[in-house]
Amino acid sequence: SLLKATYADGNPLHERLIIDLPATGHTLALTGLPEILGRVITRGPIREALIEGQKFLNSSEYSSAWVVTLPEPLPVSESLELIEGLKRTRVPVGGVIVNRLRANPFSASEQQALQAWLRSGGDIPGFRLFSELEENQAALKRLVETVPLPLIKAPEVEGLTQSSVDIVHTLVHLFEQSLSNAAAGGGA
User: Fold this and answer.
1) Secondary structure class of 39 (helix, strand, coil)
2) Which of 132, 130, 141, 21 lies closest to 82 in space, CA to CA?
3) CA-CA distance, 84 to 78, in Å (whole number)?
4) I need a labelling partner for 10 at 20 to 30 A (CA). Which of 58, 121, 128, 138 fits?
5) How far apart are CA 76 and CA 69, in angstroms?
6) 81: number of Cβ within 10 Å
7) How far apart are CA 172 and CA 65, in angstroms?
8) Residue 38, Cβ neighbours under 10 Å: how many?
9) What is the DSSP code string of 65-116?
10) Residue 178 to residues 89, 95, 110, Cα–Cα distance (Å)
């Protein structure tokens, strides 16, 4: 109904609709439901509504799923599973948003020195942060190498001092910039 709503002049009432779906299993159950019900309900107004709903759901002209993940091994694995499931249910996938991406304060040479120190049995303050950063980088690399989709990197925001509106505008700017880079073939 929201997708079909128009002004009196025929223009769409809503420019975009954003739907926040549940976890992977529930989302795939929802995206597969129209096809399953369509096999059972073969005619009538419910069947027509299913066909129309599936037209919106399965057409890149009308919809695009964006998978949101964290740069960690388990969330990345689940995101890859979700992307494959969405493809099976013929839902177009627009890209992936990697949320809470930490900035890496270490240069390449510092990282190499820290890795060598740790391999030699050394113990350093901040070891947990360093190993989490390495784990995040490995998960992000796996995602980039596996998924040929636009990737938007949303930085971790600590100590929120900006108003919510400013944060949203900043993130929208980052997303638009990432999409422009991806469209230009430069990745995100």
Assistant:
1) helix
2) 21
3) 10
4) 58
5) 6
6) 14
7) 17
8) 15
9) EEEEE-SSHHHHHHHHHHHHHHHHTT--EEEEEEEEEPP--S-HHHHHHHHH
10) 27, 11, 28
Given the DSSP bridges, would you call strands 93-101 and 65-69 parallel, antiparallel or unpaired? Answer: parallel
DSSP 146: H
Rounded to two decimals, the pTM is 0.73
With beta carbons less than 8 A apart as the criterion, state whether 72 and 80 touch: no
Q: Residue 80 corresponds to which amino acid?
A: L
CA atoms within 13 A on the CB side of 153: 16
The token duo for 89 is 């249910």
Q: How far is CA 25 from the centre of its chain?
A: 16
Sequential pLDDT tens for the chain (188 residues):
888 899 999 998 988 778 888 888 888 888 888 888 888 888 999 888 888 888 888 888 888 899 999 999 999 999 999 999 999 999 999 889 898 887 777 788 877 877 777 777 666 666 677 778 888 889 999 999 998 888 888 777 666 555 667 767 776 776 676 566 655 654 44
